[in-house]
Amino acid sequence: MTSSTDTAPSSGPKYPGGSGGQRPPAVRRAPRGEPLRRRSFVARNPSILWFLLALSLFTLGVTVLAEATGTGLLSTSFIKTLGKTLCLCLVAVAMDVVWGYCGILSLGHMAFFGLGGYAIGQWLMYARTEQIVMGNLDGQPIPATPQEISDAIGTQIFGVVGASELPAIWAFAHSLPLQLAMVVLVPGLLALIFGWLAFRSRVTGVYLSILTQAMTLALSLYLFQNDSGLRGNNGLSGLQNIPGYENTPQATLSISFFWASAAALAIGYVALAWAVSGKMGSVIRGIRDNEARVRFLGYHVESYKLFVFTLSAIVAAIAGALYYPQAGIINPAEIAPIASIYLAVWVAIGGRGRLYGAVIGAAFVSLLSSWFTGGGAPDIELGFYTVQWTDWWLVLLGLSFVAVTLFAPKGIGGLFDLINHRVMPDREGDYGPDTGSWRTEEGTEEEPPR
Amino acid sequence: MRLLTFLVVCLWLPVVAAAQDLQSILQTHAEEAASPSRRTVGTMLDDLAASGLPGVATFLERYQDRDVVQRAGDGLFFYATKSGDTYTLSDISTGEEVGTAPSSEITEIRPNGGVRREIAGTLVAFQLSDPDIERRQTAVEAIARSPSADQLAPLRTSIETETDPALLARKRQLAGILAASFADSTADRVAAIESLSGEVSVEVRAALNQILSSSTGVATALPDGNIARTFTPGSDLTEAEAYDQLVEEGLALPAPTRADIRNALAANIDGGRVGGVPVARLDNDETRDQAYGALAADGIVPPRIGAAEQSAALSAHVFYEIYDEDDPAITDAARTALSEVETRVGMGQMVDLSLDGLSLASIYFLAAIGLAITFGVMGVINMAHGEFIMLGAYTGYVVQLFVPNYTLSLFIALPLAFAVAFGAGVAMERLVIRWLYHRPLETLLATFGISIALQQLAKNIFGTQARPLTSPGWLDGAWVVNDVIQISYIRIAIFVLALIFLALILFILKRTRLGLEVRAVTQNPGMAASMGINPDRINMLTFGLGSGIAGIAGVAIGLYAQVTSEMGSAYIVQSFMTVVVGGVGNVWGTLAGASLIGGLQKGIEWFNPSNTLAAQTYMILFIILFIQFRPKGIVALKGRAAGD
Amino acid sequence: MNTKIAISAAALLASSAAVQAQDVACPIQVGVLHSLSGSMAISETTLKDVMLMLIEEQNAAGGLLGCDLEAVVVDPASDWPLFAEKARELLTVHEVDVIFGNWTSVSRKSVLPVIEELNGLLFYPVQYEGEESSRNVFYTGAAPNQQAIPAVDYFLEELGVEKFALLGTDYVYPRTTNNILQQYLIDAGIPEEDIFVNYTPFGHSDWATIVSDVVALGADGVPVGVISTINGDANIGFYKELAAADVSADDIPVVAFSVGEEELSGLDTSNLVGHLAAWNYFMSADTPANAEFIAAWHEFIGDDARVTNDPMEAHYIGFNMWVNAVTEAGTTDVDAVREAMWGQEFPNLTGGMAVMGTNHHLAKPVLIGEIRADGQFDIISQTPEVAGDAWTDYLPESAVLTSDWKDLGCGMYNTETETCVQLTSNY
């Protein structure tokens, strides 16, 4: 973590892209004689503390109001909704790092999220089924062979649709540690291989977006097939029943998962904030703004991109592994391209290039969305026509999204700048995790001038 | 057979038959007549045909058409026409009106498809030489559907009097097929079979396959008869299969399966031990085999049959396939003919598959060409492109609501769809995209927003159910080369449409003022502006053009598939793939991309015909890899990526 | 396992003790869990309306146990995880006494754990793949032996079909049904190579190759038939392509299990005339009860053009059986009602009597209809009542299973080993 803000030349900031960009407002400077390197990472980025504080307060509040641990004012299903929302916030933060900081508009991060869910779902289903099968086979006069046990589990999981043998994809499902490793390894490796191929060929910009979307589509089509060995369209279900905790009420389980999600969000937030700060953060943002220049400066751009892409994929997978036991079912529709697009929408509305923006966007839009589609919003009587929000919500979302893109590129997070009267630091030095949205134009692609 | 009876009976029984009438025959078979079934209706049809009554043919036709009803009170049968809740009844013998009845007293008789086929078979005798050509055609088709030996003679007789040349050819062809199976002498049949070898139709293959129908068997020695082939266990069929066959025929004892062994062990637990092995140790196959062996040695359970015993049993038997047809001359001829036919069919199938691939490619091309303009030429990502396709399709649907003539409505719908999508495209360009030319990723997202909104809007207006877009009558049916190679007219029309648009776009871009200006703006907007071109106007028009073509593609896609609010999203990723694979900024590239993707998909489907979903998955994977290794697409432009 | 049974037995005792103490809380809440938005809305909204109509009729007839019924309608928006969430909400927040809902199998699998955990009661009205019998679910739609098997019998017996193409959309209902049918056909003497199986994605539109594959099946000179489990919109393209290839119902008949009145309404059916569908109910059934039901429906919905279909009848039977069971039990308590449901009888709209079996499946007649040009069906075959079979008899692994909640107290009972495989269901 080195920083050179205090020795920066005072010449006016040069903004990339030139034409049309407004000049950033006056520059806040660190007071002279107080080198930034002495201050801790958190102290330099007070927003992290604020965020952690808000998250703890929220968690505390929910705990007090929950059924299992407090007054019971919040129903179990609402606790589950909140827990799931925290997971969505985490994947949004990961998305923000990839897109808002590194400039890779990935339309495939929900695929990693889903893969994480599938990985944990496999263990949940296997362990639950194993208990049933073992309980059943115990009554037999002759002890079962390992093959018989695995066949019985296979028959139970797949019904008559699959073969009686467990597909190879379930090879590690019997062990929780191995399957937990799969949560990280499978999406991580997929991201690594995909990223390596794509970045190596210098596929950038919109091409990369389309390519990630194609990856998601291929994955969801593959999982839709019955032959994939993951139960096709039905997916994995009954995931809310945790093996070994059959007698624990869902109220307790839901608040435990809520805490776990909150902890994961906190850790993920800090880790990703650290990743996008300091020198590495500067390089990453440099790649976003002008990949060619960073490359000419001697940085190995591909490695940076690959690191960010893979790291965020792993974070997304962990979020998914926490999300689906709360949702109870995962199926290929969860991985469909539209899910990843919504993820981008959340981040954009929340405000890209600042991590708390992503959190706000994901929480705000997903909760609002379930409020509208759940029939919570009152219909609007226009006299000649009744606007039913279940029908019109998506129209509103789509249009407001266009509006945000056009008129408020900073999203909801931009409001914080108004409150704080915050101004942008100079181009030089460490931006920290919250100032990534400050730009008017994307980096040009490395192509012959058009 | 039935026909033969009929002919015989006709000759010497007219007197007896005259004593009956239609109603009384039906009454003797009242149950079959009221609820006919394929297996039981035969006797009634035989009797009707044998009666020789004049009204039989008419009756059978109307019976087939479900005009016959039964009156509940007396069980009599009538012809009936329904109006409102009452039926007007007519006598089945005379056709005279005999009164009306409320629907509660009437049971409609509904012969099902199987029965109708039987009736058609009986009607053949009446219709083969009928003056009405439609009836003759019906009779010929009935023979084609269920050929039988007794049809050969009447068919040959009717050929002599046939006047219509097309029908005559059809009758001759059918007579040839029938002769191959049913002619009297071996020489005749062989000659008929040989004459069939030049055809590829399903009927011919059906006839030849029927002649070659065979059954497999196993015995200690090869039986007499027309043996097709013998099998060697291990090479022609696996040893396990062969042994199963032996067991099935009762020629060998079944080898106990794992489950059998487990059950046998469970049944023979003796003081916590089975065959001397403690029960607790029986949790693996080895000890189980050991325990089972001990039981078998004591004669408690049948012995395990090892590999050596199995192969001994196999070598003591011969596995063979025997033809149902006894005459080897005929089966030899049929086999030769069939192999020739099948070679031709195989080639035909390749051609047919290529046609399907070409058709799919033209659909992808049509869907993607608009995108190739906006994305390829202008560099603008329009994720709402799919929704412009949808917009066009719904325009077609709405036009059909107001213009019932399908031909006319199609010719109104095509330009209107263009206009609507053009308008939507221009509006979008003016309102949104214009502000985002320097931010391609945000264009992508903003157009996604529009796509989501448009899709939901379509759902709100038209509902989530698929809407019909019916093609005019002259586009129904298919261009049939033979029974293997055929392609529907609608697909040909789409192919032609794709060609027209390819030509049109090339013309616009290369030969018109607009095209020149578009290319100029694409290459250097600043310079173009200084030459007096208004880049705003050009961008707007280009975008409108691309969108408008999407609208027309929507009409075309709606005609051959379905119009739903989600049809656009089904094509958008494929369309982008097409453009990117082909090479951005190049109309020829799009063509190459569409051909590659369409051909590839059909190729993968051909390898794995039972899983279309897998074909799509692997195609996308292929494209992802393809782009990694050739990021600029098939037709990569050198130097300036301009509007070619 | 033993402890589990003991626990649930204790729970059963405890709850039946609670019954006597408990009075019925007015109004009685009836949950309606059908998607009102999203891709399934088109099918499921109708079922929501039917439930509202039935509840209104029941209230007009004096309610139930002296209470009015009140519908609690929620919208799971065709989002499968949301089904589980909404079911939990219905049972814990709204405290409904019964839920009528779900359409797709995956949505049912999603709510099953919740319903079983909270001991709710669900009536599921759609034909499905079987292989399930939950303690807390009553299946009023057809199991495969009440729709698919009779249709295949019809093909074999009446149409003399000897070669089969099983075409389906790639999801669990077609997969399971086709597996069962394939085994059934092999048992009936059809060689395996004469059965062509194909799966296509949802909304598939490119049917040319598949149709020519089907036509090519005729090359053996035996009649070919298509058993279609193709779902939804994809059917349109399929029938269009069949017609374009000049294949009529006389050449290659198609029997569909997912094409009903609702799917045909507003479509150009000229390409479909003569093809078949198998259901337990057709709107064209000529009985007074059906005429009355259709009239009531038209009056309720205010549109004479609206059609009725099989799942609507399933809800009609299910709701009336539930009402009778509650009246008999004198309470809405789930366990008491469950027991009163066994053996409940209610007249079908197509004639005859539907009976609820102890395996929670209905006995219903099977009808086969030919599509007419007006989008209705000519009923050409109607069997007597067929008892729904939770576990199919045609596949070896499930032939040994049976379900009997009354005497065996188990939905997945292995008759070979004489043990209850599991008490919860196989989600």
From TrEMBL, chain A:
One of its GO terms (cellular component) is plasma membrane. The chain crosses the membrane at residues 48-74, 86-115, 180-199, 206-224, 257-276, 303-323, 329-348, 355-372, 392-412. It is a multi-pass membrane protein. The keyword Hydrolase does not apply. Pfam families: BPD_transp_2. Residues 439-450 have a biased composition (Basic and acidic residues). Its main location: membrane. Residues 1-33, 427-450 are annotated as: Disordered. One of its GO terms (molecular function) is branched-chain amino acid transmembrane transporter activity. Keywords: Cell membrane, Membrane, Transmembrane, Transmembrane helix. It is found in: Cell membrane. InterPro entries: ABC_transp_permease, ABC_transptr_urea_perm_UrtC, LivM-like. The keyword Cell membrane applies. This is Leucine/isoleucine/valine transporter permease subunit. It comes from Roseisalinus antarcticus.
Automatic annotation (TrEMBL), chain B:
One of its GO terms (molecular function) is transmembrane transporter activity. Residues 1-19 form the signal peptide. InterPro entries: ABC_transp_permease, ABC_UrtB_bac, BCAA_transport_permease. It is a multi-pass membrane protein. The gene is livH_3. The chain crosses the membrane at residues 363-381, 410-428, 489-509, 540-563, 575-600, 612-629. One of its GO terms (biological process) is amino acid transport. PANTHER family: ABC TRANSPORTER PERMEASE PROTEIN, BRANCHED-CHAIN AMINO ACID TRANSPORT SYSTEM PERMEASE PROTEIN LIVH. It is found in: Cell membrane. Belongs to the binding-protein-dependent transport system permease family. LivHM subfamily. This is High-affinity branched-chain amino acid transport system permease protein LivH. One of its GO terms (cellular component) is plasma membrane. Its main location: membrane.
Automatic annotation (TrEMBL), chain C:
It holds the Pfam family Peripla_BP_5. SUPFAM superfamilies: Periplasmic binding protein-like I. Gene3D superfamilies: 3.40.50.2300. CDD domains: PBP1_FmdD-like. Keywords: Signal. The keyword Magnesium does not apply. InterPro entries: ABC_urea-bd_UrtA, Peripla_BP_I. The keyword Signal applies. Residues 1-21 form the signal peptide. Transmembrane segments: none annotated. This is Aliphatic amidase expression-regulating protein. The gene is amiC.
